[in-house]
């Protein structure tokens, strides 16, 4: 939590409770459940203030909380403008030193108003180094080079460039309301219809980045370390400084502080020089000797503390930028030292030893988790260790590929080599790692006590894929045969099992839908497993049960695994399956398995209902069963025979499906005409139905309950099953075929349908991949998705999806080729090779020539190529002969082989022409996928006279990192409950829950995280609806900054956040800011996708309305008419959105007094409303009619513009009187009680229902337009 909005990064507040909180039952509750309606116990910690006395400045007071540690006060002081130059001090209370790591509540006598004294301590070498590092950080605090270079978890943010820092408190100045001429004309390239897509505006130069030069050089002196006789005088180290005035001085860091000595570059003289000034702080010494330093350092610190904390806090995982401006490479002693000394395998904060990653990762998992504070502590520890491990693993993987780590088996060939660095194990492989990582992710999420997985990170760098894993204690001393006590090390020949492993894995089998099964080993003995045979169990020397090699956690995907003698269902055969894939490890995604099981559950319930009706039909003489309207009301639903299910069950919304299921379950229970108690009857009915149809019809493994599980070893090469299990194996094979068919007949059509209805709005490759994965569709099905889009009747309404899909297909195919291409490039030819590849891929120049490394540097002696070179040290120049024709031929070939899609293009220009792509978008996509960083400049892609890229344009190549994302479960439950409350219209309660979720997210993740970002966005929206614009602005500003820092400055999510912020700025009368934010969002949208996207209609409506508000009518019309065109294309000419668009255009014509055009548009809109609602709908003013006195037109009122802005952004205020509100509340409460009652009745016994449906919003609240692709629900007040 941030205190009064400006506390430093270090103050990630500890919010864990002071008193043990009463348990709020949240962990058992289902996230969407109503349990949280009993008031949630908010974890309070009452803060108090203390007075700080520091040398040389006025005393000041500081707000602290009892949970904080003393060291957090240290951090605050090191961040404050007036005390930031101190690092080596202790805090004293009544003459007693406070321990660094003790919590404030444990300090005796510390209370409201206590005085803490800052006392300077003597330096040690370590403290002196920390001090110099801190001073260097202060000097670099506004310099963005770390963010461009992707180091130390720095990343970029450009929001302040567009807001001029006038949000939040200072935003209360009613800026731009007096209609002082705001310059509203956007740059030419932002206007609708512009073909220009410049790159430079992506990273505008921030004024603060031209750093004020305080010193020319600050570096370690060559006289280090001090000789013995000087050590005995207290010398710790020597620094060399050149001041801004060009004075060269040598400085001694001693135990008592810093002073000038008489050494020069060539002559060592450690005696003090004049002025003989000893200062405890290096900054104070430099202030004495350099007037420029004194002036500029003060200005720099002022600017530093004015920046929003979110611009400075480190992100949990490194974010890389794919473009960067040309930067000066400045001398930097700390950076130089880091590169060569301490960081090679040693982490700073544990002096003198490497970190035992495995021990840290496993110990955090063992922390207690009985109540909320314990779980928070545990999740925070897991997250922190995990992000540290990811950073270390990434550094190690790069060191391995760059050839800086010795292999532990150097004699083997390159791809078999293994490495150990910093207690992390590295190996090179390509396919298995991502599957293995998904397995680790899954088992971590199930989180069974006593079962341990390895820390796993997969890093793609310079064309190689490296897996980094923590090391099981003792594994390196033993043979693998001795270690493995569960699973198989030779692909199923010898298989062993272990009762403890079976017991642990049994607990994961239900959530992961894994079947416990028997396999045969090489001696034909039956061995029982509860995972795939590849999964190995090893007990480490620490006594923990580890599982590893989880690459076959999920069942195989038969569409990509041709098995001789096995026929696939006809849906698969029609689509051209099975097709052989590159490798045999194609698995179904966990999301698909879950969706398939749920689909089968609905099918099962429908079959049950059918059975029931047939039984009831034969029992017509007992009319009682029909009186409650059960079966008759169900008839409509269950008439279609199960065969049609696949097609009809496309509603991807599990909520509605599960609601139906509950209804059915109740009916079955109520109608079991045995006259027994309902619960009894339901139990019997369930068993009876399962027996009658469960196993046979839907593939359930149990005859008494609905339970579908998969055997992950089916179709595994080399695995054999005992005779006794043949029936089970046959059923399992069928289940796998059904799942493969389900993906093609349900999930892919469901995705296309969602895209058509704009339920999902992908904007770039990454967002498309995400919506596919959420539905369990692997990327290898991309070609199939595109084929279905092409065949779709409303093809043009899916234009945007098709474009994104084709772009993704091309860049992924190019990435596959690039990978192998890079493996043949030596380090010195890297930038030449990458620029040559980009020229062949994107430049219209027909025959680019690769620049080989300069001849004068090529040595005369070429050594013979060794078999065991380090991975990244190839020395051939085969890459230089690639041509654009050859590359594009390979891309088309790869698209056909991998995605089974025929690209119709032989050059980049044909691709752009045929599919309407943009070269700048393709450059962004390939750079993000491969880690390339290019120079920020305008590239002439279309020039036929010179290539677009030179080797100077390739600045860097970064790793692309995949890792597990640990979750904050309690915070997430609070967030979901808050969303549910909001959907029911309880805004205040929802707001409280979401605020609490925000506290918990901050607690677990620290201040910066994707999930915190979603939380802030929803809070801002709620505050806005409740009329608190200032709070909405402050929260949304944080959401924008966080999205830029954590997801990327041009990520589609960031574009969304900019739009929301613009709306709240407009409502707070900051018109020019609102406009510049919208223009920024439009520019990013053009760069990332282009103009022709449904989201662009929303953006242009926003821009048009704001321009209308500031009386820029002609400009406003350009945007609104573009929005109208785009809406008409994507929603069809008869959609309500289009009617609204007509109305907005008409209003502008009206303001321009062009009534004929206005009338025309109002008529169009009116016609749509009439056809849609069948009656005149008093939603909009009726069309203007002639024959009234000429009206006096003035500018539209801000209120009316704001009202329209709210409508198009999916926020609808419904005017209700106080009495209406009371009635509404009573009605909602009444329904709520009814739901509760029926739920309690249901809870008695229900073997079949898997999860309760989340409560939907009551109908009374009026319908609202779909929210602007906002994960938060559309909200009404």
From TrEMBL:
Keywords: Cytoplasm, RNA-binding. Residues 9-25, 1232-1246 have a biased composition (Basic and acidic residues). Residues 335-561 form the Clu domain. Residues 1247-1259 have a biased composition (Low complexity). One of its GO terms (biological process) is intracellular distribution of mitochondria. Residues 621-635 have a biased composition (Polar residues). Pfam families: CLU, CLU_N, eIF3_p135, TPR_12. Residues 1-34, 621-657, 1232-1277 are annotated as: Disordered. InterPro entries: CLU-central, CLU_dom, CLU_N, CLU_prot, GSKIP_dom_sf, TPR-like_helical_dom_sf. PROSITE patterns: CLU (PS51823). GO terms for molecular function: mRNA binding. Belongs to the CLU family. mRNA-binding protein involved in proper cytoplasmic distribution of mitochondria. Specifically binds mRNAs of nuclear-encoded mitochondrial proteins in the cytoplasm and regulates transport or translation of these transcripts close to mitochondria, playing a role in mitochondrial biogenesis. This is Clustered mitochondria protein homolog. It comes from Pan paniscus.
């Amino acid at each position: 939590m941030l205190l009064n909005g400006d506390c430093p990064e270090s103050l990630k507040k500890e919010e864990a409770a002071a008193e043990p909180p009463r348990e709020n039952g949240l962990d058992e509750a289902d996230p969407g459940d109503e349990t949280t309606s009993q008031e949630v116990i908010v974890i309070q910690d009452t803060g108090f203030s203390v007075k700080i006395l520091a040398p040389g400045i006025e005393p000041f007071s500081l707000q602290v909380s009892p949970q904080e540690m003393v060291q957090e006060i240290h951090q605050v002081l090191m961040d404050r403008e007036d005390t930031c130059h101190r690092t080596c001090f202790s805090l004293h209370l009544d003459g007693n030193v406070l321990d660094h790591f003790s919590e404030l509540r444990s300090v005796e006598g510390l209370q409201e108003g206590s005085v803490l004294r800052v006392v300077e301590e003597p330096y040690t070498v370590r403290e002196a180094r920390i001090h110099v590092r801190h001073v260097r950080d202060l000097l670099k605090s506004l310099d963005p080079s770390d963010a461009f270079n992707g180091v130390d978890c720095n990343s970029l943010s450009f929001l302040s460039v567009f807001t001029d820092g006038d949000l939040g408190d200072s935003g209360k100045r009613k800026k731009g309301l007096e209609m002082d001429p705001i310059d509203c004309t956007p740059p030419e390239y932002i206007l609708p219809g512009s073909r220009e897509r410049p790159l430079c505006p992506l990273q505008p130069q921030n004024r603060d980045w031209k750093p004020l030069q305080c010193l020319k050089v600050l570096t370690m002196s060559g006289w280090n370390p001090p000789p013995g006789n000087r050590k005995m005088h207290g010398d710790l180290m020597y620094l060399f400084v050149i001041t801004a005035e060009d004075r060269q001085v040598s400085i001694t860091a001693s135990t008592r502080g810093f002073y000038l000595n008489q050494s020069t570059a060539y002559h060592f003289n450690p005696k003090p020089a004049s002025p003989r000034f000893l200062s405890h702080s290096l900054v104070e010494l430099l202030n004495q000797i350099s007037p420029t330093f004194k002036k500029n350092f003060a200005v720099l610190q002022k600017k530093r503390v004015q920046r929003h904390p979110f611009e400075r806090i480190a992100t949990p995982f490194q974010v890389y930028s794919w473009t960067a401006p040309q930067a000066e490479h400045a001398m930097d002693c700390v950076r130089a030292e880091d590169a060569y000394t301490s960081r090679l395998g040693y982490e700073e904060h544990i002096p003198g030893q490497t970190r035992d990653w495995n021990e840290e990762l496993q110990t955090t998992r063992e922390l207690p988790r009985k109540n909320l504070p314990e779980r928070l502590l545990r999740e925070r520890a897991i997250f922190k260790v995990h992000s540290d491990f990811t950073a270390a693993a990434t550094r190690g993987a790069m060191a391995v590929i760059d050839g800086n780590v010795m292999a532990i088996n150097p004699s083997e060939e390159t791809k078999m080599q293994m490495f150990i660095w910093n207690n992390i194990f590295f190996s090179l492989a390509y396919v298995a790692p991502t599957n293995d990582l998904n397995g680790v992710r899954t088992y971590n999420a199930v989180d069974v006590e006593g079962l341990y997985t390895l820390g796993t990170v997969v890093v793609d760098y310079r064309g190689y894929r490296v897996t980094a894993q923590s090391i099981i204690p003792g594994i390196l001393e033993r043979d693998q045969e001795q270690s493995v006590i569960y699973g198989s090390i030779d692909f199923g020949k010898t298989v062993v099992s272990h009762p403890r492993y079976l017991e642990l894995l049994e607990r994961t089998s239900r959530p992961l839908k894994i079947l416990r099964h028997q396999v045969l080993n090489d001696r034909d003995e039956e061995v029982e497993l509860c995972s795939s045979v590849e999964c190995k169990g090893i007990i480490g020397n620490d006594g923990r049960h580890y599982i590893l090699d989880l690459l076959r956690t999920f069942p195989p995907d038969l569409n990509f695994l041709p098995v001789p003698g096995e026929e696939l269902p006809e849906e698969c055969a029609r689509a051209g399956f099975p097709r052989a894939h590159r490798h045999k490890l194609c698995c179904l995604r966990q999301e698909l398995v879950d969706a398939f099981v749920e689909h089968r559950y609905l099918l099962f319930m429908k079959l049950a209902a059918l059975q029931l009706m047939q039984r009831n039909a034969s029992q017509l003489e007992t009319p009682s069963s029909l009186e409650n309207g059960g079966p008759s009301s169900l008839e409509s639903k269950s008439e279609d025979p199960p065969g049609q299910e696949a097609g009809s069950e496309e509603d991807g919304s599990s909520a509605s499906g599960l609601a139906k299921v509950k209804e059915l379950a109740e009916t079955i229970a109520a109608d079991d005409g045995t006259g027994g108690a309902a619960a009894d009857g339901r139990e019997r009915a369930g068993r009876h139905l399962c027996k009658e149809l469960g196993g046979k019809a839907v593939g359930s493994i149990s005859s008494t309950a609905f339970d579908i599980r998969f055997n992950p070893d089916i179709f595994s090469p080399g695995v054999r099953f005992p005779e006794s299990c043949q029936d089970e194996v046959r059923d399992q094979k069928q289940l796998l075929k059904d799942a493969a068919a389900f993906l093609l007949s349900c999930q892919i059509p469901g995705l296309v349908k969602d895209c058509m209805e704009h339920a999902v709005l992908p904007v770039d490759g990454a967002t498309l991949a995400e919506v596919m994965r959420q539905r369990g569709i692997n990327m290898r099905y991309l070609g199939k998705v595109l084929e279905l889009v092409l065949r779709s009747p409303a093809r043009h309404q899916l234009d945007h999806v098709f474009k994104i899909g084709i772009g993704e297909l091309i860049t992924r195919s190019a990435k596959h080729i690039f990978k192998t291409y890079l493996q043949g490039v030596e380090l010195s030819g890297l930038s030449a090779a990458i620029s040559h590849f980009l020229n062949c891929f994107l430049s219209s120049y027909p025959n680019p020539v690769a620049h080989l490394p300069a001849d004068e540097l090529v040595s005369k002696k070429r050594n013979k190529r060794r078999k065991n070179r380090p991975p990244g040290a190839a020395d051939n120049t085969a890459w230089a002969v690639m041509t654009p024709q050859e590359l594009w031929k390979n891309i088309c070939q790869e698209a056909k082989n991998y995605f089974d899609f025929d690209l119709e293009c032989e050059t980049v220009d044909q691709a752009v022409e045929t599919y309407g792509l943009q070269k700048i978008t393709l450059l962004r996509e390939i750079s993000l996928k491969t880690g390339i960083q290019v120079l920020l400049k305008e590239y002439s892609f279309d020039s036929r006279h010179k290539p677009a890229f030179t080797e100077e344009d390739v600045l860097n190549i970064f790793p692309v990192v995949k890792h597990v994302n640990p979750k904050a479960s309690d915070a997430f439950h609070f967030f979901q409950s808050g969303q549910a409350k909001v959907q029911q219209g309880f805004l205040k309660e929802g707001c409280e829950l979401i605020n609490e979720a925000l506290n918990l997210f901050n607690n677990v993740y620290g201040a910066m995280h994707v999930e915190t970002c979603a939380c802030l966005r929803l809070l801002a929206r709620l505050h806005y609806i409740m009329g608190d614009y200032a709070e909405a602005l402050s929260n949304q500003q944080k959401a924008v900054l966080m999205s830029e820092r954590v997801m990327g400055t041009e990520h589609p999510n960031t574009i969304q956040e900019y739009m929301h912020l613009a709306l709240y700025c407009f409502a707070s009368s900051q018109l020019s800011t609102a406009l510049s934010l919208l223009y920024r969002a439009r520019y990013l949208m053009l760069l990332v996708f282009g103009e022709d996207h449904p989201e662009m209609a929303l953006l242009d409506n926003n821009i048009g309305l704001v321009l209308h508000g500031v009386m820029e009518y002609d400009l406003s019309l350009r945007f609104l008419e573009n929005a109208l065109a785009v809406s008409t294309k994507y929603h069809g000419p008869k959609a309500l959105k289009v009617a609204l668009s007509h109305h907005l255009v008409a209003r502008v014509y009206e303001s321009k007094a062009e009534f004929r055009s206005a009338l025309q548009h109002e008529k169009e809109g009116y016609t749509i409303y009439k056809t849609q609602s069948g009656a005149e709908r008093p939603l909009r003013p009726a069309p203007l009619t002639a024959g009234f006195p000429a009206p006096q037109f003035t500018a539209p009122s801000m209120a009316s513009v704001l009202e329209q802005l709210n409508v198009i952004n999916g926020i609808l205020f419904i005017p209700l009187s106080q009495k209406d509100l009371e009635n509404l509340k009573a009605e909602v409460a009444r329904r709520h009680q009814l739901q509760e009652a029926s739920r309690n009745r249901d809870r008695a016994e229900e073997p079949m229902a898997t999860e309760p449906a989340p409560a939907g919003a009551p109908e009374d609240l009026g319908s609202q337009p779909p929210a602007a692709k906002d994960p938060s629900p559309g909200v009404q007040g």
